[in-house]
Here is the input.
Amino acid sequence: MSIRVLLVDDHRIVLEGLNLILARESDLEVVAEAGDGATGVALAAELVPDVVVMDISMGGMNGIEATRRISAASPLVKVLTLSMVTDRAYVVEALKAGAKGYLVKECAAEELSGAIRAISQGNPYLSPQITELVVRDYMQSATEERSTGNRRLSAREREVLQAIADGRSTKEIAYDFGVSIKTVETQRLNIMKKLDLYSVAELTKYAVREGLSCLG
Here is the structure.
């Protein structure tokens, strides 16, 4: 059985190109085309295709809003976003709207058929460069989050954290710094709250990762 596809794009030349790509595939059938988001929503409700290939940037109703409406009205219809844009914000908005995949237009010739097959089977699909963007952004956010947490600690708190990670007891830390045990206990509690870490083991791992402990 063929996978039934609806194409939505406001550029005639793009629709023709997509048709040419899919015409080579015996298991993919273009059942209709739409030149704007509103028509795409109406055709999706009428024809209930397996996959809608949706341009993200169109006049009138854009692809994200059209995707949102299709996903709400016809949950069985899978939407594949097609876009020139590789900005993370657009990717996130498209996926939040209900898209099951995000394909960069410049890669359509090589990836379109495979992407349609993937999402028709319930699997998500992101162009490799989009996957790289998302992963890189996540890693950068994680690094910034750790650095921000470290910057929130005062100089004395970093020293206390280092001492804790190096295995020194509260009594030893208090003696070394010339303060009371209660002061060290308060500082340790403040460190835990700031880093959202609530055991010596977690504090030690954090200190090693941030280069604050000689154990690293």
